[in-house]
Each structure stands twice: as C-alpha cells, then as structure tokens.
Amino acid sequence: MKAVVATDYGPPEAYTVADVPVPRPGRGQIQVRIAAASINPADVRLPSGDFRDTVPLTFPHVPGNDFAGTVSEVSEVGAGVTADLLRGLGAQETIGYAETEYPSGVDAAVNLTLPSDHLTGLARAIRGGGRLLTITYPVPEQEWIGRDDVLLRFVLDMDGTFGGIREVADLAIRGELPATIGRRYTLGQGPQACVDFTRRHTTGKLVVTI
Q1: CA-based Rg of the chain, rounded to a whole angstrom?
Q2: Are 12 and 194 contacting, i.e. CB atoms less than 8 angstroms apart?
C-alpha cells in the first residue's frame, strides 16, 4: 500500500510517499481501510525527534492517528481560526494568540493546541485555585507553568474512560459535533499536508483523502 512515510527523524519537509507492507491486525486488533485522515500534532512532533527519549520511533515510520474508514479485517478476540468560525462553533467571546490579549482571573482553561511545555502565559490568566487542563504532549509538569496555586491536569482520555468513539460518532451524526475541514489533500499531497500543518496558520482539520 502507499502511505506518507518518515524515513528518519526530521522536519515534515523530508516526508515522502512510498509503498509499505499492509499491516495485519494482531490479537485483539482490527485492520481499517482508510478513506481519509486528518493531520494530528503527533504526526509531526514524534518524527521531529522531540520525544525520541520517551517515545522512540522505528523507521520507516507511517504517521497517522486521526482517520476514518471501513473495518477490513478483525483478528481473533483477545484480552488561524477566525473569530467568526469560533463563534459559529459556540464561542461567546474570542481573543487573539498574543498573551497580552489573555484575560485575567479565569476559573478554568482548556488547552487544545499549544504544546504542554508552553503554557506559562496561559497559566498566568488563571485565578488562584483555578484549573488548567491540557490534552497535548509532552505530558506537563507543574513547575513548567510557574504556578503552584493552579491545578494542572493532563486529560487525554486514551482509554475511553469518559467516553469512546461511539459517543463521538453519535454526536457527529446528530449534528451536535461539527467537523471543520480547512483543506483537503490527495495521498500524493500528504507530505505537503504535514508541512502546512507545521508551517502555516491553518483553520480546521487538514484532511488527506485516500
């Protein structure tokens, strides 16, 4: 099969499209024929080598964490978003990226985009006793934010403790969870999608269709 491939640690400009073996599902796993995939921060951060000491990769490495498709094989069972766009998604008030625009005395902040080792400015906007929740890597440490009076939590629910993909799919089907697509790419343009994700201010998901 063809896939976007990183052949070594480095920037997304070094990614290429190559033929790789079709992966087979192991015990308790499924195989999915992917129809489309969107670019996830891990698709560029992990191959960059930033986390090679904690999450080492083997090469060639095929990035890809967010995708949609059809289950094709089952193994045996085993144990620059614009203000208008944001308002359309339900935001009552928007601010810019500059830390000088951050409000003060915020009860809680949820970080969905900034690397978790770059949250000092956001932490300053939170009142004492407030909460800062983040879903991004690296897994944050309290001393990084320079505040010991703000509760810092990493809340990426990989085990589906608070809900699973079925609940997400149901919300999408009912139209309660809209998906904002910024741009679509072909598989051959997959490396460029990773570059654009890293180098450009993008709106919505960048989707690679197969």
Answers
A1: 19
A2: yes
Torsion-angle region of 125 (φ positive above 0: left; ψ -120 to 50: alpha; else: beta): alpha
Model confidence pTM above 0.70: no
Q: How far is CA 162 from CA 30, 137, 165, 181, in A?
A: 22, 19, 11, 25
* Pairing relationship of beta strands 106-111 and 30-38 according to DSSP bridges: unpaired
Which stretches of the chain are DSSP H helices?
Answer: 41-48, 83-88, 120-124, 165-173, 190-199
Those residues with Cβ within 8 angstroms of residue 104's Cβ, 6 or more apart along the chain or in another chain: 124, 125, 127
Q: Sketch out the chain's domains with CATH numbers.
A: 2-79+178-209 (3.90.180.10), 90-154 (no CATH)
Q: Are 167 and 145 in contact (CB under 8 A)?
A: no
What SS3 state is found at 51?
coil
Report the interhelical angle of 190-199 vs 41-48 (nearest 10°).
90
- The pLDDT tens digits of the residues spanning 69-109 come to 888 887 654 334 467 777 777 777 777 777 888 889 999 99
Expressed in angstroms, the distance from the first to the final Cα of the chain is 11
Q: Report phi then psi at 163, rounded to 5.
A: 145, 160
Q: What is the DSSP letter of 150?
A: S
